[in-house]
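ugh finaly. both done.
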Amino acid sequence: MGDAPAPGHALREDTSEDYTLVKPFDGVWITVKERFSIKIHTTDEGVVVDIFARGHEDEGSIGSAYAFDNETICDCPEHPWNTEQ
């Protein structure tokens, strides 16, 4: 596990339950409980998660969350993202 994803695949499997979004992809859709469509996508400043009713993705989202890259900066040398970029 942790190998590069197959060509054309947006996710790399890190463990059986953990995945990493790989470049050049900037987003991925996930279906949850057969009724939610969840879009996770990157921005220049961080990440956005939008939740839609399945089948109604072209309508407004029913929930959303976001986080900024600078909120992940820490003094943890074990993390590769621990400095401002």
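ok and the 2nd:
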Amino acid sequence: MKRPSHRQILIAVAALAAAAFCFVAWSIAPTLSDAPLPIPTRVLAADGSLLYQVGPEDEETSAPIAFSDMPISLVNAVVSAEDKRFFEHHGVDWLALVRALKDDIAAGEIVSGGSTIEQQYLKNTFFTDAPRTLPEKARELVAAQWWAATHSKNDTLERYLNTVYLGNNLFGVQAAAQEYFHKDTRDLSISESALLAGIIGAPSRYEPVSHGAAASDRQRFVLDRMAKNGYIKTEDVEGYASTRLSVFAPRHEISAPHFVFRVLELLEPAIPDIAIGGYEVRTTLDPDLQHVAENSVGLQLTKLMEEHVTDAAVVAVDPESGDVLAYVGSVGYWNEGASGAVNMADAERQPGSALKPFMYQTAIMNKLVTPGTVIADIPSTFEGEPLGTGGSNLYVPENYNDRFHGPVSVRDALGSSLNIPAVKILDQLGLNTFFGALEKFGITFDEAPDYYGLGIVLGGGEVTLEEATHAYAVLAANNQSTPLRFITEVRDASGAVIYQDDPHLERIFDAHEQTRAEQATALIGDILSDKTARALSFGESSLMEIGKPAAAKTGTTRDFKDNWAFGYTPDFALGVWVGNADNSPMYGVSGASGAVPIWHDIMAYRYRFDDPQIEMMPDDIVTRDVCVTSGMLATEICPKTRTEKFISGTEPTLGDTWYRWEMNSKTGQREVVLVLPPEYDAWVQNGN
């Protein structure tokens, strides 16, 4: 092979040098001019109306401050959290870059960027619309080294800290200090400095107004880093971390604030600079339905003020697309007295009886019961109290109304939300089977089933309103699931679509289970839509009726800390929570009196002009006239009968034997008497 000539080598070297020069010039060119005017990120409702505009263009949310006025504690906290070798490197921390590369390779995705403060500043100021590609990363590295060579560290920190995003449309540490703490930056304590520094890594997750616990954890992380870097003493970390801080919610023009901040939180991992500016986010929110939901929440809580009810949340969903149509996280984001900035739609709370439909659906699927099966609603004791209670080994459930109803059908037990029948069926079904079913519907718990015990069906675990409403949406979609969808698409400054979320329904049951699951789900919907099934607890006339067919279920915790209302049609699912963000109990307010009125308002508005879709009963559902008391086939002497629905093959085949003709020894006349099975003897002897 012929060796290249000296001339050819010189030409190649010159070409490489020219290419390198051009690349360097291209990399640093944006930094030679003034920072471009920011283009705000606009968050839009489904109809295109503006919900929120986020970006540093608002003078009220961006207040510059000189580096000399920044406390050393803030500088140390930011450097510790974001770039611990800031004062040692020259724009690029090669050690951090190599470590980040190793982490990314191990994870199979980008989990760490290793960016220095110079890189972050340049990215957020001059390269806001740059794609996340290797050439752009190389360009950023070159620009960062150029910047470090032409600007002092103090100058870089001043610019960075005056423009960095700190959540809630706050840019720069001065604006954040004034809004969050009602003080100037120069007056920040070490604890406050660490809290602010912690926000930078993920503003939507660590801002202290809506995510106090996460912000505190992040603050502790920053304090530990400061101690490790020698800025504070290790023995002082606990004191700084435990210092109670007063944090105030900034006020901005914004519609559906909890929804908007949830959207930004969801987008931040994929688009880290989403809140810096330059994007248009189209969401799923229906502004008219949102307005109705917010108004109903406000009116209901005004009525319940004397019962110590201060908060409520709403999630409304299209079951087919997963679109979140309305989303109320609290009675008012700016209501500090009720912890309004805390998003109760995404907070874990005890669901009361709200999970019963999923237990009954599983029991019907497994041929354990039918809607007509009769359960003894009488005093009952079970072995295995939930491990989490730390009590004895015996579990004695009680009904919400402290009454026992004797023989009740599954239809009446679920419709009227009776506790003892539910626990009895779960005891036969098995905890593992029930937890497996809940997982299919998207509800999971941190501990093993035995930790919660049979009380899980009465609200012994914790769920969020989001996940519970999604589970009901899966029922509404006939056991088909799609994740909740908040965002339809995101466009960058050029108008190009860079993010799109297309709904996709997936069946939650295997093919061999699907038919049985559809049959069971149809029967659950029929029960929850049956006003006569609710009569034992709610009467035949209640706000759970909207004049059109709709499934409804309430939930109330025994201590009145939480109450719920869920319901659905084939094309709409709705969940409502009512309670107090501080977990204090309400004064005897149940789901029927607390959450249901809000549920009724929204559901009635949704169907003010049209009717819900009609869900046809699947094949192999048969009807039989049954004796309600026994669940057996109706006879001429049974005083109360109903036409009940069954999956074919599970219907009763024998006539009722509980009502009999017997001779009255006193009158000598034959009369109809009810002879209950022996398990009811003690209940009858107690005068029932």
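summary for the 2nd one i guess: The chain has three domains: 16-38+56-251, 294-488+497-606, 621-685.
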